[in-house]
Structures are given as structure tokens and as C-alpha cells.
Amino acid sequence: MLSRVVTLGNVQTIVDVGFEDYGPDCDSMRITAFLDIPGQDNLTPLARLEKYAFSENIFNRQIIARGLLDVFRDFSNNEEDFLTVMEIVVRLSEDAEPTVRTELMEQIPPIAVFLQESRPNFPTAFSDYLMPIVVRYLTDPNNQVRKASQEALLILLEQELIAQNDIENKVCPILLDLSAPDSDDEYKVEAVNIICKMASMLSKTVIEHMLLPRFCELCGDGKLFQVRKVCAASFGDICNAVGQEATERFLIPKFFELCSDSVWGMRKACAECFMAVSYTTSPEVRRSKLSPLFISLISDPCRWVRQAAFQSLGPFISTFANPSSAGLYIREDGTLTEGTSAQANPLICVESPRTDLLKGSSNSCGSPGEALTRLSQNENTTACVIEGIKDCHMSNCQGANSRFQSAEDIFNTFLYWRPPLPDISQDLELLQSKTEKREEGCSMSKAICKNCVASSEIKKVLESLQEHMDDPDVQGKSLQYKTNCFHHKYYILLQESEEQHNGTIEFLKKEQHNSPLIEDGKSKLQDIIPQPLLDQYLSMTDPARAQTVDTEIAKHCAYSLPGVALTLGRQNWHCLKDTYETLAADVQWKVRRTLAFSIHELAVILGDQLTAADLVPIFNGFLKDLDEVRIGVLKHLYDFLKLLHADKRREYLYQLQEFVVTDNSRNWRFRYKLAEQLILILELYNPNDVYDYLRHIALTLCSDKVSEVRWISFKLVVAILQKFYANNANALGLNFINELVARFRHCSKWIGRQAFAFICQAVVEEECMPVDHFVEHLLPSLLSLSSDPVPNVRVLLAKALRQTLLEKAYFKSVGNPHLEAVEETVLALQSDRDQDVSFFANVKPKLNNMDTTSLEKQN
User: Fold this and answer.
1) Is the pLDDT of residue 483 over 50?
2) What is the C-alpha separation between 145 and 680, in angstroms, rounded?
3) Which of 95, 134, 726, 739 is 20 to 30 A distant from 195 in Cα terms?
4) Is 250:212 a contact under the CB 8 Å cutoff?
5) Following DSSP, what letter does each residue of 471-502 receive, concatenated?
6) What are the percentages of helix, strand and coil residues in the chain, rounded to 5?
7) What is the pTM for the complete model shown?
8) What is the spatial distance between Cα 454 and Cα 460, in angstroms, rounded to a whole number?
């Protein structure tokens, strides 16, 4: 940076030449270099600084303000000069020109860092001189100066450069004054914004005692909706800063007020931060208070509020999650992994209270038949039910088993919509006493066993009807008649049986009546999250939602589905299965792409059994989808395949070849990602499968038109070779080596021969095969490249020999029969006519970290 003093008339001006080129890396350049230039004034540098700091020329004062950091560095060796500079800065901060004050304020953070690191002898300099300037500028009449001071304050707080005493005695008081009810509107909005942003940087004690009361007051500001909007947008940060107790005591009531604000922008801001607020509350408050409040936002009359609420619905549901209950735990890097059996059992539901056994057992039942099945199979049944079942005769119990096995066939979707059963009055006294409930539960279980004969008759009716249903002639003529006959006979059997087990029918009918979500014979009820939240989430795939809420609502549903699945647990996957299948078949490729990117995480949540049954078919569909969708599967292909059983995983060996073909041949990153994944996938298959399937893909990628794809493919080839020798498949390794020599060493294109040199170098670096095999099968072909006519090939050969082979202990040993041949080749390359070849043949091993890819690009 060149600075010189020029006299224009009677005014001396600093001419700044090339100031835009000034940067922190230019150690020899200083903005204030003019202070060291002897001028006509014969002043000392300190006097010259003071002269130009208070010059009548605005530009001079701007340069001084802009170069304050250099000024402090120049005068920091002398304490007296340092204090003089501080006084000059304080005087300069009172400059009437806003641009000067702005320049000065922008230099405060770096000066504070310099004072903290380099001037421990002046521990109070920043607090005594510079901190008052920052606070004063918060009330500056110029908007630009205030913005600069606000940014500087936040930077200083973030880097912990402000002492706790200054925060409590200087920063907080001025912010409280600016946010007072009688304060100027513009200052109040800015102060609220600063309070919200600095909440995460202050201690919990300071926020609770000094800022929280004012924040609660501002949430109800009836004069300016801008103030309330800032509070609503930052509500989650404030809750996180003060903790659970203060949130539930002070902030939740204010949050309710903001969610019912007359301005839709406030309600929208509340919906956007709902997850952060929920995260800091207890499960009881989250379920009893926040859930109904969120439902009100979802049904808000304003479309923009509903849109924001639906976007936050999945994240809000995720706050109910307890990964340990699903047998999972979260690693430090944020990824999910399977937990140990001691941590949790993912397949066992939480046991219901004894007095509410039947209700808890059928919460997720889609029909009375499924409820009976649960009563027979649930290991968590109470003692009274078990005793009732034991009282049954053995033959009756066998009949009960036949009924339970056929219950799923009887109570299907068609029969659910049959004419209703006769109205049976409910015995309300059963709900008033635990003892009566237990007795009723025992009577129910006994009644079930007593009516096994009726169950067998129902099964016979089904079997006889099925014979007629299989007849194509009968199907076309009297399907409706047969259905009505079956329905009528089934209805009569139920009437006969209900006289003997009144309580059972009453319970089943009541549960059937109270189950609002029945689809395909499966219930969508669960007890992990409030049911209305799940109902609203499942409705996000409804096409009507796209018209009334948001055209991309299905994408938001897909994005948050893994979090919802983690919350519900794999035992409640049936609640989400239909929704997931609907999203996977969505016409918008962005929705399918979102699912493709997260299917591996969902597989971890569901476990291997559910993954094989429900996710594998969708995964197969994604493999044949657009490239925009396939890339999501491809990026996490290894993560998904490793979760499958070996036999299921082997089915994908042939399908991996389909990834080589893309919709657009220019999409080289797709093939690059395939090579990266194949390097990881090698460990999932045995050497024979790798040789038969993956070897062909690797060799195809090695011939790609794009350099980046070829280089990563060469690493894949080396990994395959290492796989063979690590598993003692030496025969496969030798066959692969012969194929590499034929394909690359004797390639007619120089790129192939250069690739052979790189592969040999990588083989030696990774030590992926025995040295005796290398010197026998690869080294002769490698050394023969010294006579290659293309310099680029000889450059790679020189690097491989000089920087890799000769550094290995095997080639350093005295008497090595192959050492002489290698050294002769290196000597020949050192005297090569090409400068690059001779350079790499003579270069020392310490320079062996040069990027081969960059070299090829330069060539």
C-alpha cells in the first residue's frame, strides 16, 4: 500500500494508492505507513497521527479510523504513547462525520482481539476506553453507525471479549433503556433484536435476572407488531437460554398469547419456532399444552400460518422421541446406530396398567378380531386373563386357537363396513372401579374360551364361501348374493355368541366405534405422541392439502418422516407405512428424492426385518427412477446394503451395473460417487462375487471420459486387488493382475499406460499384495514404461519409482536382485530429455505429497 502526503492549496491530504489491494496477508503494507514518512512538517509520528486524526479533510480522518489497528501495533511498545493513542481514539469517536464513526466502529473487534492477545499489561484498556464507545454508538442518531455498533457488540460477545461486569453494568442497562415502553420505536425494535441475538451468548443468570422480564413485557407490546414479531421469531432461542423451569413458568404463557395474536405474521413466526420451544419443555407440558396449541395453528384461517405449521409438524413430533426406547442411540457425529440389548428392546411395547389392560392392548387394533388375537398372543396380559384362559378345557383352547388364526381373515376391510351390530347398552359401572374392571377382564377371557365352537363355525363358513368364490362362473353371477348370505350367517353367529360373552362384544364394539383411523384392517392409533398430531401428519399426503396449504407439503412430509418414525418406534411402523408408500409413489421427483436420501437412516430405525419387508421394494423402485432420485440412493448405498442379510444383499450385485448408465452422460459426478461407494461395498461381498460382478464395473469406470472418475476408479481397482489377497484369493488376484497388464500396460492410448503406473504406485503404497508377487507380475511391466514415447507416462513412472518404491524397506535392502533394475531405470529417467520427467526422477521423497490429479490436469 502506497501512501503519500500531498499539499493541495493550504490543506495536506493523504493520497491512498492501491488501498483496495490491502489485506491482512500484506505484512509489509500498512494503511498508516504515511506516519513514518518524513514530511515538511517535521512532526513525530505520534504528532502526525493527531494532526491527521483531526484534520479538516474527511478523507484523512477516515484513513486514520480505518488504520487504527496498525496504529496500536506501532505504538504498543511504549505505555505512554499507547495511552495517548487511546485518548486520540476517544476524541475521534466524537467525530461529526458518520462515515468516520462507522469506520472506527468496524475496527473495534480486531483491536479488542489485539489488546487481549498482545497487551496483557493493559487489562482494562478495552473496558475503560473502547467499550463506552460501543455502548454510546448504540444510540447514535445515524442508522449506519448504529448497525455497525450492533454488529461489533455481537462479535465481541461471541468471542467473549467483554467482561461479565461490563455486560451487567454497561450493555444490559442501555438495552433495557432502549427497549423501554416510552423509547423510540426504531430504537426499541433494534434493541429487541440485539437482546434476542445475544441470548445464546450470555449466562443463564444474566438473562433470567436482567433481560427475561423485559422480553416477556415486549412479547405483549401492543403498540408495535414489529416488536412482537421479533420476539416470536426468537422465542426458541430465549427458551433454550433460560432453561426448562423459566420457560414453563414465564415464557409459555407469553407463547400462548403470541400464537393467538391478531397479526398472522406473529402466528407464523410461532409456528416456525415451535420445535425449539417444545425442546425446552417437559414431556407433560409438551403433550398437554403445546400439542393442542399446535393443532390450533394447523387449523389457522391464514394459509401462510398453516403452511408454516405443517412444515414444523414433523420437527415438533420429533421432540417426543426417545431413541433408547427404540433400541437406538445417537453417536457423537449425530448418526443413529443400533443399541445393545441392555439399553433397550426395540420390539417390546410399554406395558399398559392392569386396570386398563384391554384398552391398552387394543389401542392399535384395526378390528375386534385383531383385539382377540392380541389377547391370545400378548405376553404382557395380566394375571386375571391368564387364569381365565387356563380354566378353559384343552379342546376348547384348541378351538380358540383356530379362531385366533382365522380372525385376521374374518375381520377384513369389507366386513368392517357391514351393517352395525345391535345396540347394546354399556355398563358404566365397569369403568368406576378397578376391582370390577379386573373381574370383567377375567369374565371376558373366560367368555372367549367358552365361545370357541362359534368361532369354528365362522371359520367353516369362510372355507365354504371361499370354494364358491374361486369358481369363475359363480363370481360373475352371484357375488353380491353370496356376500350377503355370508354376512347374514356371520351376523347370526355373533348374535348367538353375544348372549354368552356380553362383556367381550361390548368392549370390542366400543373400541371399534372409538377407532377413527382404520385403513386396510390396521389401526393408526398409538400412545407415543398425541393422536391428533399423527392424524395431521398422515394427512399431509392428501392431495387436497397441496391445494389448500402448500404445493410442496408432501416434500416436507417426506423430509421429516425419519424423525417421526424414530419417535413412534418400529413397533408403530404400521402407522406410517401407507404414508411412506404414498410418498414413494409421488409424482414429484423432489419428494422421491428426499426419501431416497434418507432411506438408509429409516432402515436403521426399523431394523432388518421391517427393512426387508417394507423398504426393499421401495429401494428397488428408486434404483430405476430418475438420476435425481437415484443419486440419493447411491450416496448411501453402502449404508443401506450393510443392513440387509447376506442373501438379500447378494441380489443387488447385478443391479449395481445399472448405475453406470445415467440419463445424462455428462453427469460424471454420478459415476464418481458410484466408484466411491464401491470401495466401501467391497467388504460386504466375498472375493468370488467381487471378481464376477464388481470387477467389470471397476474396469468400465477406469475407461471413463472424465479424469476425476478415472482417478477414483484406479483406487477402486487397488481396493479390489487388496480384497483378493486379504482373503487368500491369490488365484483371483493373479487373474486380475494379468487383466490389468493387458488392459492398461499395453493400451494404445497413453492415458491407459499412465493409469497403469498410478495403479502400481498405489499398490505399493497400500501394500495390498505380497512384495514377491508385485516384483514378479507387475514390476517388469512397470519398468518397461521408461521407454514410453509420451512424457506424461514417464512422469508418473518417475514418481512411482523415486517417491514410492525406493522408499520401501524391501528395495532398500542390500543384495536385492530387483534393486539394480529399479535404480537403472531411475538413472535413465533422471537424464530424460523432458524436464518434468527428470525433475520427478531427481526430486527428494519429502515432496512426495504432490497431487497426481492436479498434475494430470496441468498436462
Assistant:
1) no
2) 55
3) 95
4) yes
5) -HHHHHHSHHHHHHHHHHHHHHHHHHHHTT-H
6) 70, 5, 25
7) 0.69
8) 10
Sequence-distant (≥ 6) Cβ neighbours of residue 708 within 8 angstroms: 668, 672, 853
Q: In the block, which residue shows the cell 449425530?
A: 334
CA atoms of 525 and 83, how far apart (whole Å)? 73
385-435 pLDDT, tens digit per residue, is: 333 333 444 444 344 344 334 333 444 443 334 444 444 444 444 445 444
- By CB atoms closer than 10 A (0-12, 13-18, 19+), residue 440 is buried
Query: Residue 3 in contact with residue 15, Cβ under 8 Å?
Result: yes
Within a 10 A sphere around the Cβ of 426, how many other Cβ atoms?
Answer: 12
For 11, the 3-state DSSP assignment is strand
Taking the C-alpha atoms of residue 280 and residue 796, their distance in angstroms, rounded to an integer, is 59
**How many C-beta atoms surround the C-beta of residue 315 within 10 A?**
19
Distances in Å between the Cα of 268 and the Cα atoms of 260, 318, 557 are 10, 20, 18
Measured CA to CA, the distance from residue 640 to residue 803 in angstroms comes to 39
d(CA 622, CA 634): 10
Q: Dihedral through CA 782, CA 785, CA 786, CA 789, nearest 10?
A: -170
Single-letter amino acid, residue 413: T
Q: How confident is the model at residue 71 (pLDDT cuts 50, 70, 90)?
A: confident
Please report, for residues 31, 282, 333, the alpha-carbon distance to residue 319 in angstroms, rounded to integers and kept in the order given. 53, 10, 19
User: Could you give the maximum distance between any two Cα atoms of the chain, in Å?
Assistant: 121
Which of 486, 464, 482, 462 is CA-nearest to residue 474?
482
The separation between CA 592 and the C-alpha centre of its own chain, rounded to angstroms, equals 17
pLDDT tens sequence across 804-820: 888 887 777 766 777 88
Q: Quick one: DSSP state of residue 366? A: S
Q: How far apart are CA 859 and CA 849, in angstroms?
A: 18
Question: Residue 709, SS3?
Answer: helix
Cα 678–chain centre separation: 23
178-187, 508-517, 605-614: the lowest-pLDDT one? 508-517
Go through 797-809 and write b for each residue having 16 or more CB atoms within 10 A of its CB, e for each that does not.
bbbbbbbbbeeee
| Pairwise CA distance, residues 633 & 199, whole Å | 40
Residue 191 to residue 583: CA distance in whole angstroms: 45
CB neighbours (10 Å) of residue 45? Answer: 17
Q: Cβ atoms within 10 A of the Cβ of 624, count? A: 10
Percent of the chain whose pLDDT exceeds 90: 52
Q: What are the start-end ranges of the H helices in 611-667?
A: 616-623, 627-635, 637-641, 646-650
